Amino acid sequence: MLGAIIGDIVGSRFEWNNIKTKDFEFFSYACKTTDDSIMSLAIAQAFLTCRRNYSTLRKEAIQSMQQMGRSYPGYGYGGLFEQWICSSNPEPYNSFGNGAAMRVSACGFIASTLEESKLLARMVTDITHNHPEGIKGGEATAVCVFLARTGKNIDEIRDYVHKNYYPMNFTLDSIRERYEYSVTCQNTVPQAIMAFLESTDFEDAIRNAISIGGDSDTLAAITGAIAEAYYGIPLEMRRQAVLFLDEQLLKILIEFENEYPPKAYGACAQPNI
After folding, report:
1. Contact assessment for residue 212 and residue 195, using Cβ atoms and an 8 Å cutoff
2. Which helix (H) or strand (E) holds 1?
3. How many domains does the chain have?
4. End-to-end CA gap in the chain
5. 44 in a structural domain
6. Checking CA distances to 64, which of 34, 35, 126, 261 falls within 20 to 30 Å?
7. Residue 250: is it exposed, middle or buried by C-beta count within 10 angstroms (0-12/13-18/19+)?
8. Rounded to an integer, what distance in angstroms lies between the CA atom of residue 34 and that of residue 38?
9. What would the pLDDT profile of 196-211 be if each residue is shown by its tens digit?
10. More confident residue, 272 or 37
11. 166 is a domain residue
12. Which pLDDT value is given to residue 266?
């Protein structure tokens, strides 16, 4: 969960000022939380409220996302999603935007099985992003988090994504120069997953994601969620990141991590295999 938030925070200042290098100050005064963090925590709150009674998950997710969106206006929401937040009758709008993928990390941390990670991802995705590519992007992200969290190595995660979701037959170096800004799942999720696959530790994964440009905060949020599940987050980085969260956001994060404890940094037995 915090991995997605860190990716969002670090990537926030580069979304409209892309860079094509991994050499940059990680946290700075210009960093901030955006809609990626707000909606990730909204989904976390929905899980905390429904207490594993997934029959109410869609209802709780809608309520939590609307409440959080209205409490935190102007955080970079897409136009259609902002209308959805304010609607008295919120309905899915056939979107395949990358907002489907940036908010689902909780699904991968909570799920007990691979199939459950897919089901939970679909349930919190299709309430807005019910286009097949939107559902695919959310599901692929949650699945990667689950696989990383449950001990699969990088080659196994790569193979699963390649066979079931997106071709993983490229490198970041091969796309960095020509990669452009996109808010679609199909042009964000594979690149974010590759940023994790080419990483050596949590920080390196975030730097990889930001280094290709594009929708930097969302790319890094997706990458950060997977990287946290695989590597854990360094304690000092965790301490710095929570300073960007206000009392309400921090409360949700703490409650979620108390219920679903994160991996300790360095706990992965076989990093970068």
Report:
1. yes
2. none
3. 1
4. 23
5. yes
6. 261
7. middle
8. 7
9. 999 999 999 999 999 9
10. 37
11. yes
12. 67
